[in-house]
């Protein structure tokens, strides 16, 4: 089991500014977190940072601090009321990266109290000796005693996407032969290659854009991918699905993608899901991803990915291509790449999702057809024209945006979230970010909420036992 923590960058900066604002003494804070628990990973999603005021400390020096129970008991009550996880954070002097023997002695007492008062969740602690230097652990309640387990990873999501390995955590795995990535390493360095190999990326949709994204991710050396598509290869889409051929007609798209990745041979681990993302079991699988590419044309699928991004702090790169053609005359080609990140505008308030179309797509086919005739539901669009050159170009732009997100190679001040690209005139425009007022994407009710009784707060379609 892997344990990790995800911060929104503003919260991380607030925390570290407090811890090191006065470096002459140790400082403390508390974190309240949502939680995501899967079979392979437990993620703590930081929702609230509570700074500990010096007047609530019993003792404070450059090498020691002691906190009064009057400081943390109200925070434990808040965690219990919200059903959130509790973390204690404090600073150490530079050079003391790990937990001290005093920490090892005192923390079990605090976290025994936390388990009694909060009553649920998993709780833990962090110690910082610098802005990017820390150790972390969770205290697992085995009934008779508390057992510490190191945190494996810290994610920080904002304009950039940072990954920190705790000093006490296990080193990331590297198994891909570096000779294959020599030219890439010359561009970005060994650290980025090591990071790519340890990323888990989700791709939803294996058509023109999705297949191009998948091939580029595999050739970049991404360590693990989860690929989702319920459809099979048709004769009309072989012309733009990367890795496909005439012999693939009738095969599932995800299997064609898996074969392509295996043929590339870099060792990317692949988990394929031949179902629709609008099923709850599929959406739950995507919680393990570090980032998701939305390469689906359907509005209901986009809605699910949008909610996943909000609830679980998973950056989403959504894309689309629209060709305006009449009687074989191509009048315009518009490509779009949209980046959704925590505590920022979502696809809904940017009007890339229409709720009437979501509702129509989720209707049973017979019922929807009847309601269209009655005028109570919109007619869903027919299949649009598509050309491999355009879908591949937009897919490439989206992968470049991912690389910028984790490297900043386009400039540290760049904060673009909606890219509109007129491929017929090679003109870019950056759509202004709209006001999110009235949208729930920035409310505490959703942001970083993680697992809840009703997954994503949504009602999902009943999943058939076997899809045809």
UniProtKB/TrEMBL annotation:
Start and end residues of each THIF-type NAD/FAD binding fold domain: 181-435
Keywords: Proteasome
Lineage top rank: taxon: Bacteria
Coiled coil (residue ranges): none
GO cellular component, one term: proteasome complex
PANTHER family per the UniProt record, alphabetical: TRNA THREONYLCARBAMOYLADENOSINE DEHYDRATASE (PTHR43267)
Protein name: Proteasome lid subunit RPN8/RPN11
């Amino acid at each position: 089991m892997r344990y990790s923590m995800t911060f929104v960058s503003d919260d991380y900066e607030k925390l570290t500014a407090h811890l090191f604002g006065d470096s002459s003494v140790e400082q403390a804070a508390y974190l309240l977190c949502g939680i995501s628990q899967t079979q392979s990973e437990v993620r703590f999603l930081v929702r609230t940072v509570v700074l500990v005021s010096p007047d609530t400390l019993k003792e404070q020096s450059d090498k020691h601090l002691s906190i009064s129970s009057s400081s943390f008991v109200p925070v434990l009550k808040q965690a219990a009321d919200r059903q959130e996880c509790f973390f204690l954070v404090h600073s150490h002097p530079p050079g003391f990266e790990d937990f001290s023997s005093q920490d090892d002695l005192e923390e079990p007492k605090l976290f025994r109290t936390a388990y009694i008062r909060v009553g649920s969740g998993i709780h833990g602690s962090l110690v910082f000796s610098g802005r990017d230097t820390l150790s972390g652990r969770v205290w697992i309640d085995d009934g008779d005693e508390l057992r510490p387990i190191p945190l494996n990873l810290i994610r920080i999501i904002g304009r950039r996407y940072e990954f920190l390995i705790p000093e006490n955590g296990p080193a990331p795995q590297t198994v891909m032969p570096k000779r294959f990535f020599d030219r890439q390493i010359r561009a970005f360095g060994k650290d980025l290659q090591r990071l790519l190999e340890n990323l888990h990326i989700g791709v939803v949709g294996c058509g023109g854009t999705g297949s191009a994204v998948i091939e580029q991710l595999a050739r970049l050396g991404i360590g693990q991918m989860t690929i989702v598509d319920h459809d099979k290869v048709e004769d009309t889409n072989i012309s733009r699905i990367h890795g496909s051929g005439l012999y693939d007609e009738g095969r599932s798209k995800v299997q064609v993608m898996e074969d392509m990745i295996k043929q590339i041979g870099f060792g990317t681990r692949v988990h394929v899901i031949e179902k629709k993302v609008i099923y709850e079991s599929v959406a739950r699988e995507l919680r393990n991803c570090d980032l998701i590419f939305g390469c689906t044309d359907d509005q209901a699928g986009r809605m699910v990915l949008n909610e996943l991004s909000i609830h679980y702090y998973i950056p989403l790169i959504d894309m689309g291509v629209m060709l305006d053609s009449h009687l074989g005359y191509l009048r315009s080609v518009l490509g779009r790449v949209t980046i959704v990140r925590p505590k920022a505008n979502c696809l809904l308030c940017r009007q890339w999702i229409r709720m009437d179309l979501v509702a129509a797509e989720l209707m049973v086919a017979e019922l929807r057809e009847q309601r269209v005739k009655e005028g109570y539901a919109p007619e869903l669009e027919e299949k649009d024209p598509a050309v491999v050159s355009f879908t591949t170009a937009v897919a490439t732009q989206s992968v470049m945006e991912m690389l910028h997100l984790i490297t900043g190679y386009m400039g540290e001040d760049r904060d673009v979230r909606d890219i509109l690209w007129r491929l017929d005139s090679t003109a870019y425009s950056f759509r202004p970010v709209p006001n999110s007022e009235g949208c729930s994407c920035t409310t505490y009710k959703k942001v970083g909420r993680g697992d809840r009784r009703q997954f994503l707060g949504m009602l999902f379609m009943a999943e058939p036992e076997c899809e045809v």
